[in-house]
Structures are given as C-alpha cells and as structure tokens.
Amino acid sequence: MTEPMSQPQVITASREIDAPAATVFELVADPAQHASWDGNDNVVQLVRGGRVRATGEIFAMRTTKGNVRDNRVVAFEEGRLIAWRPGDDGGEPAGHEWRWEVEPLGEGRCRATHTYDWRELTDERRRARAESTTERNLSASLDKLAQRAEAAGGTPQA
To answer: Do you know which Pfam families this protein is assigned to (predicted)?
Structure first.
C-alpha cells in the first residue's frame, strides 16, 4: 500500500506590483480592506480592531461561513512585513499563519510575497481547508491586491 502524497504545508506566491510599497502595505495592514482583495473567498468584513501597527495586536474578521476569527499579529515591520495567526473568536491561534512581505523595487514598484504556513496547525476542523489552499489561491489574492493598489494611482489607501 502506498502512502498518499503529503500536501505542501508552506505555500508561497509572489508578484511585482506597479504601485509603491507603502500603498500595497497599507491595504494589507488595514483589515477593513481584506475582503476587497481576498482571493480565498474567505473573509467578509472586519468585526473588531483596526489598522495593524504592532506585533501582539488582534483583529477579528467574519468569514463567508459566518464565523468570527481572531487574528493575532505575530510579526510586524511597518511597510515591509505582517503575519497573523487565526483562531476562534476569543480563542488561541490554531497554528496556521498568513504572512505578507512587501519589498520596494524602485520608483512606484514593489514585490509582494504572500505565504500560508500550516505546519503547526492543531485544529483538525481546519485541516481540509488548509490542504486545499494552493499557490493559485495566494496568487488570486496578490492579483486582486495589485488591482486595488494600481487603481489607487500610488496613493496609500487609508
């Protein structure tokens, strides 16, 4: 009997965007903007929290299934990096992480890298969704994010 192939537990996608890094980062750091560029069709709206400014902050999002997820910020560098770990409303993070890195490439351009890491996922209820998340999902978010940032004409979204 052959073991089934294991799913990659760290998925990454990257793309260049014709917008300043500050504009792109602002869209990612402001959870109220997430539904507008979510390529996973998972988030609907911000429930609690605001523009992220530091590690340790928590923002809550309502999902398309009606659940509320608390997202604990586990890494933050203004203008460059933000990562959060979701968990149930009022609960501890479930062990998976969404990470965004934004790298300036010169006048009005940047590279955004989106990573989903579920190596430490402890909630079996989320396993099927984690296994079904692919580079295509991450790329869809990057594409929508690029559209929003490029449409802003270089002005950071507030």
So the answer is: Polyketide_cyc2
